[in-house]
Design a protein that fits this description.
single chain, about 500 residues, alpha/beta, Nucleotidyltransferase, domain 5, 3 domains, 6-stranded mixed beta sheet, two-stranded antiparallel sheet, 19 helices, 8 strands
Length: about 500
């Protein structure tokens, strides 16, 4: 009926016109005649090759292998494969087990380390939890490797602490005062529910039908309603949290009283250990928790702490001692106390035990300043020659350290006044100014490059093991940058 008009072919918008150009062959359905070689996937100087050679030839995995004593059952993944994945993951910031599982399918480096296998996240998480102590011991191995390469001099070290977010929400914590009120309220609710349950059981005994309706076809007349069971479990958790807070208050009071009595005896030149014990027991008997003392239901070992940004988080206090030469961590630990002051002696002792030598200088910020630590620093200088530079107070932003007064130090000057005068001298200012350049970059690298701001494992032991694994991977990264993949031969020799 109508005349057909010719239609011009329309070209898709944005599609380039055909050109007379030869492209490389591209066939998505091409079948390979020979399987690809894993050795061709990465360049020779890649970090993944360093980790693979390190695990296969250098690191001692005998503590992990010793745990496999049962011959029956399905063969597990090779511990070397799992160690490769965890070390490389913790070095590059891929720490969650599910993220590692995804990388084993999507990322060439992880597929190279796993030899194209794909462990599921449950296997990775179980391996990490089961062998956490052995993985944490890799920290000392990494320190020994760095020492072997001449990267640890122990001339000057800096110690500091940082707050690591626990795998728990601070909203799951409850103060001691609120715990008591909540516990009393739940006890009243349990009593009311028990009365209702008793009445319900009495009515249920009339007929089998009523009993089945109340407890189910297979229920017994001694079963409690689910709501009552839930309240009793809640009450048990509250009581456990209350007992934890009370035990901590008792222990803190005992320790404080014992330290106070020892200092009193030192001033008088006496020594009576029984008096110290009696003072501690007396203080423990009178100890009462503060109403604002808190316990967390998700991770009872963690504490609410103030981080560097001024925010309060559920956290652990991670400690580290760092050598100046190559920023190698020589000691790493985790505590549940927000204050750094309690860790001065223990961290330096751990550093000396790990390296076999005491540093010539130790730098610490004002968080470590206390009468006990100043005395320990003086004694340490006399015993092992470690000269301590400890800030006696915090400086405001851009505030300059005032110069030291002229003349001799007064004979009646306290240890704190002597330390403050020491830091005001020109050599003291120059030495202490190195503290930030030694330890602060290490924390920054762990937080950013290794995604170590938040812990994955719960409990103090889990937090300590994970922090030491992070420290080990930090040291291994430094070794890789110093020696490269060619350094494996020197480490294995």
């Amino acid at each position: 009926m109508f005349a057909d008009e010719p239609v011009k072919a329309k070209r898709r918008q944005g599609r380039p016109a055909a050109v007379d150009k030869t492209f490389r062959a591209f066939d998505p359905h091409q079948v390979l005649l020979l399987p690809p070689s894993l050795d061709d996937w990465l360049p020779e100087d890649h970090l993944a090759r360093f980790v693979a050679d390190l695990v296969d030839e250098v690191l001692d995995l005998s503590p992990i292998l010793a745990a496999y004593i049962e011959k029956r059952g399905h063969p597990p993944y090779d511990p070397r494969l799992m160690a490769r994945l965890l070390i490389y993951g913790y070095t590059t910031g891929v720490r969650p087990s599910r993220a590692i599982e995804r990388k084993c399918a999507d990322d060439v480096t992880f597929r190279f380390l796993a030899t194209d296998q794909a462990p599921d996240f449950r296997s990775i998480a179980r391996f990490r939890r089961r062998h956490l102590n052995a993985l944490a011991d890799l920290f000392t191995q990494s320190l020994h490797l760095a020492t072997k390469l001449g990267m640890v001099k122990m001339g000057r070290v800096a110690l500091d602490g940082t707050k690591l977010e626990a795998n728990a929400s601070k909203h799951k914590a409850m103060s001691y005062g609120r715990l008591i009120n909540k516990e009393e309220r739940i006890e009243v609710e349990i009593a009311e529910l028990e009365a209702k349950a008793t009445a319900l059981l009495a009515d249920a005994e009339a007929t089998d039908a009523a009993e089945d309706q109340a407890f189910g076809p297979d229920g017994k007349d001694t079963d409690l309603p689910a709501e009552l069971d839930r309240r009793e479990k809640r009450l048990a958790r509250l009581q456990a949290a209350r007992a934890q807070i009370e035990a901590e208050a008792t222990e803190n009071a005992r320790r404080h009283a014992e330290d106070k009595e020892r200092r009193r005896q030192q001033r008088k030149g006496t020594a009576a250990e029984q008096a110290v014990t009696d003072a501690g027991e007396k203080a423990a008997a009178k100890a009462c928790p503060k109403p604002k003392a808190q316990a967390n239901f998700t991770d009872p070992d963690s504490r609410i702490m103030k981080n560097s940004d001024g925010a309060y988080i559920q956290a652990y206090n991670a400690q580290a001692v760092v050598d100046e030469q190559h920023q190698i961590i020589t000691a790493a630990d985790v505590t549940t106390n927000a204050s750094d002051a309690l860790n001065y002696t223990t961290m330096l002792e751990q550093s000396a035990a790990n390296t076999g030598t005491h540093p010539k200088q130790a730098l610490a910020d004002a968080g470590y300043c206390s009468e006990t630590n100043l005395e320990a620093g003086r004694d340490r200088q006399l015993a092992c020659g470690t000269d301590t530079f400890m800030a006696t107070g915090r400086l405001a932003h851009d505030e300059q350290v005032p110069p030291a007064p002229r003349g001799r130090t007064p004979k009646d000057a306290t240890l704190k006044e002597r330390m403050a005068r020491k830091l005001r001298t020109k050599p003291g200012r120059a030495t202490y100014s190195r503290r930030k350049a030694i330890v602060e970059p290490v924390f920054g690298q762990i937080m950013t490059c290794q995604n170590g701001r938040q812990l994955l494992l719960r409990g103090e032991d889990g937090a300590r093991g994970e922090w030491r694994l992070l420290a080990a991977c930090h040291n291994l990264r430094k070794i890789f940058r110093h020696a490269g993949t060619a350094g494996i031969a020197a480490l294995a020799g």
